[in-house]
Amino acid sequence: MDFHSAPVFTDDEYARRLSLAHRAMTDCDADVLVVTDPCNMCWLCGYEAWSFYVPQALLLVAGRARPIWVGRAIDVEAVHQTTKLVEEDIRCYDDDLVQLADGHPASVVAESIRAEGFCQGRIALELESYYMPPRYRDHLEASLPHAGFLDFGVTLNRLRAVKSLEEIEVLRQAAAIAQNAMRVALEMMKPGIREADVAAAVLAAQVRGVDGTSGHLPSSPPYLLRGKRGACAHLSWGDGVFGEGESAYLELLGCRHRYQVTLSRALHFGTPPRRVVNAARASIAAIEVALATARPGATCADVANAMLGIIRKHGIEKSTRCGYGTGIAYPPTSGERSYSLHPGDRSPLAAGMTFHIHPNLAFEDWGLYITDTMLITETGAEPLTHLPRHLVIR
Amino acid sequence: MDFHSAPVFTDDEYARRLSLAHRAMTDCDADVLVVTDPCNMCWLCGYEAWSFYVPQALLLVAGRARPIWVGRAIDVEAVHQTTKLVEEDIRCYDDDLVQLADGHPASVVAESIRAEGFCQGRIALELESYYMPPRYRDHLEASLPHAGFLDFGVTLNRLRAVKSLEEIEVLRQAAAIAQNAMRVALEMMKPGIREADVAAAVLAAQVRGVDGTSGHLPSSPPYLLRGKRGACAHLSWGDGVFGEGESAYLELLGCRHRYQVTLSRALHFGTPPRRVVNAARASIAAIEVALATARPGATCADVANAMLGIIRKHGIEKSTRCGYGTGIAYPPTSGERSYSLHPGDRSPLAAGMTFHIHPNLAFEDWGLYITDTMLITETGAEPLTHLPRHLVIR
Q1: Phi then psi for A66, rounded to 5 degrees?
Q2: Which domains occur in chain B, in start order?
Q3: Which one-letter DSSP state was computed for residue A262?
């Protein structure tokens, strides 16, 4: 196909999503929902531009079938090219409201809400959204002094956690991209090779895609950590080279139309010490028990507790969460911010949810990540990637 | 060097930055500054992890020399490995405060402020920060009911706009990486080549770096747009191939230790129509006039007006800003959010500032970007990249 089809999914799929969102608005008596999480904007209408660094919103209005996009004039053409919204669904502002001291684009969002007749309405905001910084929220509330405001939290994130068949197809493309990128990296990684050269090959594979299906830029860099840096989470590659006797791990994503699948594998250069072999065994057993435990009706906590139990049996105490929902993502996180595989999350699993199973282990001066992504099916769970799970020894 | 030096810059450099920040706190009578913009956290102490998707902060406390880092336990090791903060400067929380319904890490930030004796103090917040979502701010304010709060805005962004010689050296590395990535891409781009293959080569070049200096992941994807998609800002590559008779452009970054330099070039496959040649001439003339106009004491508006004037002389009306400060960046934006080359920004330029000169032109069904990054010197301005400015014809 010459251009992205616009949008990526069928009309029925977007209608399903909008209907879920409108129902959730009704449940909390909201007249207008101001969606500012770009993942949720994408989910609801397909909008897919890297424009969220300026204030924008998708407005869902009670009694109005199509959402209203509000954003910067320069980005209107991307609305036309990535969604089925039409001119009357689009409100925009000029650059005299972009990062200057006077004024704020929230005034245009407020004006759009007023124009729909809801200046005294109940307005729901996503107060967990990175892309509604406090000043945006303050300006919006000040511009609608007679409205009532409520927190919609991560309700949309949780609605989109359950994927349709159309979405699962795209997730499988992302999984194939992740798996291929990992294969490319594992083939390269050995003592003497620069970290940056492996990272470069990973990025290229993530973008090139597989079988003619191109990939898109994931929300996080590959986490490629060796030796002592492996004790850190969330660092990426450094200036060094892989060395004999070191452990290393690589966590990477495949991304297709913003749907993301994560995968990690660990390596040891030389004969691995017993502690490394044991940590690898613990991680693999934790993934296996997650896949065996996860099924519709079981809870996130059930899966986490089973994983933590197995890890403990290997003599390792892990206090961090064991995974999280994965799906549409924009920076800064590849997670969906829907559910966590953590003892404190008692949410029940449902078929169509996808989770990064993440039994990451960090020790004082090294770390080991072997992780996979799973799909909850009608009867259990299946991994989305199919790379052998073992400690790679070089 | 085996690992990143920790931190990247000299002690004197961090002392200079902290002193500027403390002076700005004094100017607005703030006792504590809660820094949540990861760029500003990095600027103040060197902290450089991709952990900002969970609540964290760097606290500057009146009368305390070193800042206090507050974040997730899993990220403490990255503080040790990327900064000179010591154990007593670090406060952390466990994963039972990560993306679960109960509690919020803001309570740990509040507790840290109380422990410094400022529960009734004046607390400055960065209300433009993506990484203090409204719920974080609400929890923090509720946890410190006797404190007063004020908006520090983008004060730190503006302080870091003026770069030291150490920073300019890193920016030159980023510029070399950007320039090399652009060369790689321009060599590849011709009809029949997949957009994703060019994007993959760009990403690989950005990460591989030049002359043994590795690159880091830029804050934005390369914007690689051809034909009709060129009318959009902020889309990245699509599933297509470059075609005969089309225009295309590529905007990309070089990134080194989070310092970013941007560069764009435009191409036409075949004999370019007069409108394309004219738009290229207008862009190049706009860059030239920006370099000729920019000097300490001239304002952002002066540069923007000169650029808009030249563009208008070519018969083109541009209403978007003509550039923006560039330096340390994390997603979602490669801009510094300091100053804009826009008629509405009357801020004076100073030696050491760096700007992406961005005379981007978008038309109904195509677009053309030729852009460069400049450094303001003591007497004028110089480009940081040195790739010939012309429309590339294939």
Answers
A1: -95, 150
A2: 11-159 (3.40.350.10), 165-393 (3.90.230.10)
A3: E
Provide the terminal-to-terminal Cα distance of chain A, rounded to the nearest Å: 42
Q: Using an 8 Å CB-CB cutoff, list chain B residues near A131.
A: 130, 332
SS3 call for B143: helix
Question: Three-state SS for B174?
Answer: helix
Its pTM stands at 0.97
pLDDT (average), residues B362-370: 96
| Cross-chain Cβ contact A344/B81 below 8 Å | no
Residue A3, pLDDT > 70, answer no
> Which chain B positions have a beta carbon within 8 Å of A199's beta carbon?
207, 214
Nearest Cβ partner of B74 from A205, A223, A362? A362
Other beta carbons less than 10 A from residue A299's beta carbon: 18
User: In this complex, which of B102, B196, B228 lies closest to A208 when CB atoms are compared?
Assistant: B196
Say whether pLDDT at A41 is over 50.
yes
Does pLDDT of A166 surpass 80?
yes
Tokens found for residue A124: 């729901």
Q: Determine the length of chain B.
A: 394
Give the pair of three-digit tokens for residue B53: 């998707």
CB of A135 within 8 Å of a chain B CB? The answer is: yes
- Measure CB to CB from residue A50 to each of B77, B125, B236 and give the nearest one: B236
Contact B235/A48, CB-based, under 8 Å?
Answer: yes
Q: Find the residue in B nearest to A334 (Cα).
A: B53
The average pLDDT across A332-342 equals 97
What average pLDDT does chain B have? Answer: 96
